[in-house]
Every structure is written in C-alpha cells, then in structure tokens.
Amino acid sequence: MKRCIFLFMMVLLSACGSSTYEEGEKIKADIVDVVDGDTVTVDMDKGGEETLRLLLIDTPETVHPDEPVQPYGPKASKYAKELLPEGKDVTVEIDTTIRDDYDRFLAYLWVDGKW
Fold first, then answer.
1. Pairwise pLDDT comparison (6 vs 43), residue with the higher score
2. Whole-angstrom distance, CA of residue 67 vs CA of residue 65
3. pTM of the model
4. Which residues are the signal sequence here (predicted)?
C-alpha cells in the first residue's frame, strides 16, 4: 500500500511540474540567447527555458554539427541578435506540432506585436 501511495505521489508531482500547450496559445517570454538566424532560446512564463525553431523563417546554417557554415548564415545570425537582444520581451505562439526531431520547440515569435 505504501508503494502505491508513493507512486501516486510521484506521478502527481511530475504532472504539476509539466506544462501543456494548446494550438494557437500565446505565451509571454524573454529572449535568453540567439543560437542562429532561425533558432533562439527563450524563458517562457509558462514552462521555463525552451529552444525555439522559428516557423516561417529559414536561414543558412551556421551551427549545424554536420554542415559547414553556409553563405549569408553569419549575416542572418547577426541580424537576429540585433533584433532579439537578451532580455527582450516577446510572445511565443504555439503551432500544431510542438517539437521537431531535434527536440526544439516549434513556434511563431511575435516581436513588438509583429511576426
């Protein structure tokens, strides 16, 4: 009986710490880091720190482990870092698919009310 209660408490506690997201949900966040032109790390008000793969943006590779730095990749990363400085307030909008094959969060990013 004690074992059943222990397992129940563990499941309950783990459920309390996890966040669920719904399609179209918008969550306030702060920029933590720009990884490259289409990937950023944010601290979301709901769910903590996440690496986002920005939807509707595709820039040349600069940090892919199996690919060389591609032309204009560093320029795209520089632009993203200028647009999204550390601490910048943004809004993350959830899409229909939450994560990609690299476990990055797939989302639209609203900056100054625009995406």
1. 43
2. 6
3. 0.77
4. 1-20
